[in-house]
Amino acid sequence: MNTNITVYTTSQCPYCVMLKNFLSEKNIPFNEVNVETKPEAMRKLVETTGQMGVPQTEVNGKWVVGFDPNRILMALNN
Prior knowledge:
This protein is α+β, with helices and mostly antiparallel strands and 78 residues long. It has a single domain (5-77), classed as Glutaredoxin, CATH 3.40.30.10. It is 41% helix and 22% strand. The protein has a four-stranded mixed sheet with strand order 2-1-3-4, with helices on both faces. The mean pLDDT is 93. GO terms for molecular function: electron transfer activity. Pfam families: Glutaredoxin.
């Protein structure tokens, strides 16, 4: 199964670090987009999810807002 995961983060977000550590510990590959350095990505998030906070994770087109490992695993298995 080809899985595409993108995690949207900022440099100072402790939940972003927790999420990246969780994915790494589970050997789940992901792409990271830091919205501080890519403001166009922040605009995309707000337009798509209506949320300004991070982390936000896109798993195969499904969105998980916040640090929610269970929802990410569920999205991976669907």
